[in-house]
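Before relying on records like the one below, remember that each one covers exactly one chain. Contacts with other chains, cofactors or solvent are not represented anywhere in the record.
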Amino acid sequence: MSVTTVSLRAPLVLVPGNRLDEQLRTKSESSAGLPTEVARIVHDLNQLGSGAAVSISPGNGKYKPSLLVHTRTYRLRLEATNRGTGYFVKHIDPLRLADHARLARSCLLVRPPAWQMVFELRAVPQGSDAQWQDLENAWESLRESEPQPPDATASEAQTEFLDAVDRLIDTTEEITTREEREAAPFPYQRLTATGGRRGNTPQSAYEFQLIGPELPPTGKFVRVQGDTETRGKVSRVAGSFVTVRFDQPVSWDRIPTRGALELIPSNVVFNKQRQAVASLRARDTKNPGLLTALVEHRVRAIPATTARPHEELDPEQLDAFRKSLATEDLLVVLGPPGTGKTRTITEIAHTTALATASGGGRVLVTSHTNRAVDNVLARLPRDLVVIRVGDESKVHADVKPLLLEEQSENLSEGICHAMVQRTQAYREAEAAGPWTAELATRLHQVDDLTQREKAAVLRLEAVVHAAGAPALERLAALQREEAERGSARASLAERAALLHAKMQSEQQRSHALLTGRLHRSRARRAEEELSAVWQEIQRLDALGPELQRQAEAASTEAERAAREDPAVGSALAARQAARQRLGEGLHSAYEAADMAVRALGTVMPDVPAPTREQDLANAAAGLRALHGQLEASLPLLTQRRELTQQWQAAIGQDPNQLVPELVRYAQVIGATCIGAASRPELSGVDFDLGIVDEAGQIGVPDALVPLTRVRRGVLVGDDRQLPPFLDTTVAEWAQDTGDPALLRLTSQSALEQLRAGLPASHIVQLTRQRRMPAEIADFISASFYRGELLTEKEHRHADPLFASPMAFVDTAALPERVRRESGGRQAERGGRKGSFNPCEARLLARLAAFYHGRGSEWVVIVPYLAQRMEVIRHLAPLIGDSQLADASVGSVDSYQGGEREVVLYGFTRSNREGRIGFLKELRRANVAFTRAKSQLVLTGDLSTLLRADDPGFRALAEDLHRHLVDRGDLWDYRELMAALDEAVPNLEHAADAALEGDRP
């Protein structure tokens, strides 16, 4: 936290803005903590002994440069007067969590001699000074003292790289948004508010009835023609009706009842890519060495670590795990299908996130697709604080509870519910005040009763003494005599001991030759004196019982006199009555104390219940101590009640202010590459580690967006599967330029470029797959992974149709007119994209219906959208579920990262020339084949595939044919259809009926 104290030379004078009173009245209705009146502001500011926390807000379209001045409960926006003599109070708002977060980063502590307020500009005292320049200079010095990025000098190679990326971004935007920029408007004839309301109440969604056949696609951004600020997204298209959800609520009166919608190109992606490039140019990335790692591939050595994962990993996964925890720059983890990429990512994220509490940092899990992000987040343990940032409609149902909006709403509801309960508890606890006052009153009564009880005791003692005075005098005399006797006896006993010792000493020396006579004489005299002493002791001992008897008699006489004296009886009764009243007073005080503690205990349980003391003095002292504790707690009770009301009002007014707090405490945040930078909630959030999944599908411009925001990066993916999507026109442009840098950027993913350049120490290859049976995996390993992919899966083949987990159904023996494909142009006119093959579509539909009938987990994958529609047309009537058919038949792209027990893949292409189109992109075959967990069934025309016009694909087809002959199961189309007819006799009739229904 950066703080600078600014002691000003002169008071600061405030002038209320024109509508400040109205602001205060309106906001006070829904927000606690605001001052009761405008004049109270300077009082609150002058109470800030250590100074007011101030930050400077730069000017924008709405405000001039201004001071944000914070009290304990609200924030003021102050704008300097034109002459610089004071400040207008332009706005007042309750203090929000975002304010606390901003002040925690940096602020000025401003200490003027005083804060003053006048209510007219002309009333500002002459010579007053806003001292704006002093404050601005202090703010600039504070910002300059914060850590600055290193010198932004780039090497020639780095500059060329960044220039090439910028060119690619600009050209891609120009080409891909051209259609939207040049699209004709979509006129509408009628407007409906989806909420059914009209008037000035702004709403977010409206329905437009369009004129003409052209409709804007769902998901595109549009605006009302002529109004540049009414941007919205098309959320629904039904017939001629289009629903638009605007970014900001729009009033009914603002939108013309008849007008037009026009497409707006979305440049968010391109702007975020440009920002990432700009950060690299300025060396303003979290990792200052990122550009060097990307271009020159110079990285720091990875320190060794013995960290252990939470779940067991194989040796290569463990290597990736440990290097990910320790890497200081970039790491590439290559994971072929089934090798546990997601498991490894989960362990990396889990362990790194737990280090957050011990000085580590949060983890960003990102990818080009929402599905990849959700796959990782869904597997993270629930003891982590995980947040998903993204469009709810694109997030998997399992991960929706992690959405930032969902968690914010739940937290807001939880806080509001808790605050309602807490407010009720504080309302009930208010009874502690009156009971504390009542306890004080009853303690005063106890004090009075205590004095009365003491007076009654003294009175009783006096009358008892008066009634037994003669006997008591005798008793006193006897007690004195007994004391004298005891003292005399003690002295005699001491004398006797001395004489006895002397006698024994003289007797021992009486046998001496010369002095024996003298010692014997002395011994006799000591003995005689000792005898006299013992006689006196015996006399005193005999006197003791007599004195005791006389004393007891005197005491008995005194007690008798007291019992028989009426005055003593009266005093004794008075003493007992006083003591009883004192006990009752203490009991009443205990009752008041119990009520006060019980009322206070609902919100302040640390105040202990009173302990009943038997001793009256101790009881009174304990109650006084408790009363002091209760009185000290009451102001705190008031403060907590006010704070609760402020929380309740603040959350009710703006639930979104909880968002920064949720993000602040998040250990793992999941978002797409662009979403990680485009969401304002993540602005300024620090990430220690960024994990980029499916990085083989992510181009360099997209990958730069998350990588510039993290201190360390781990790219996980498979460069032998789907490449990044690239617009065909953009690819042709790059080819035409002949620029090697652009060609690399358009033909290689970020993962591929780093794999080719980083040292071997920063590349980890996962090699043990556990998804596919060996019959499938061995072909994949030999064809795509140089034979390095190992299988660690025991598979018992139990398919009812095929003898091997890898099977091929060949249509080559069919007549050409039956098996051949239909041309792409015809498909395009019919609204379909690419080639389609009715023969293969029927075959795939029959196979899918067969496995569906057995309850298997299956999917149909085809390379063309036109073929997908053809398969669905045949399949839906066979299984009686058009929605399931639509969901279970897809393209290669849609199943990247997924897996199924049974995968049915159709090559579609069948022609004399061996034309295979974009099947030549072999990585698509790799993706399709490796989705299978138990059974892979391929369908196609081997005669076309084996004479493919692309050498690479032709070689793959030849290898596939040899593998099928050796370890697979090769079928003829007619044989398989007969087997299916035998297995499911009524299926052929259903298929014929379906086809008949489709014929004109």
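The two ends are 76 Å apart (CA to CA).
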